[in-house]
Write a structure and sequence with these properties.
three-stranded antiparallel sheet, 130 residues, 22% strand, 3 helices, single chain, alpha+beta
């Protein structure tokens, strides 16, 4: 018998109770069980999501040229190596370009770790004068 069946049976049995204090306790018990059932459902969902995240993170590969991680097939999306090693988190880095550098940089929005990538910088201008 699962929790829902027990609650339904308890509700059926409580209809015959005339003592208001006992009825109040039965109702409190029903609310508590319902709340615990909801919390259990939420925790199961959270656990499922965490397992999926762990599985997804395990697919990351390291790019020594860019000093960051990436998903195969998506080499232009870099993930912070510092956050990966410290917290096992896949934090996508922001690609930064400007006219002064021939290679683009990548910056982590969480820990601010910055790397110079192997990506050519389309905004680079060797003739730029400041």
């Amino acid at each position: 018998m699962d929790v829902k069946d027990i609650l339904n049976k308890l509700e059926f049995l409580s209809k015959g109770i005339t003592d208001t204090e006992t009825l109040r306790h039965v109702n409190e018990l029903q609310r508590a069980v319902f709340s615990l059932s909801q919390e259990n459902r939420d925790l199961r969902e959270e656990l499922h999501d965490l397992k999926n995240d762990r599985d997804k993170i395990s697919l990351l590969e390291y790019s020594p040229e860019n000093k960051a991680f990436y998903y195969p097939g998506k080499e232009n999306e870099l993930y912070c190596s510092k956050c990966y090693h410290a917290d096992k988190k896949a934090v996508r880095m922001d690609i930064i370009t400007n006219v002064l550098n021939s290679k683009a940089s990548a910056v982590c929005p969480v820990c601010k770790h910055r790397v110079t990538t192997d990506f050519d910088n389309p905004k680079y201008d060797p003739n730029y004068m400041y």
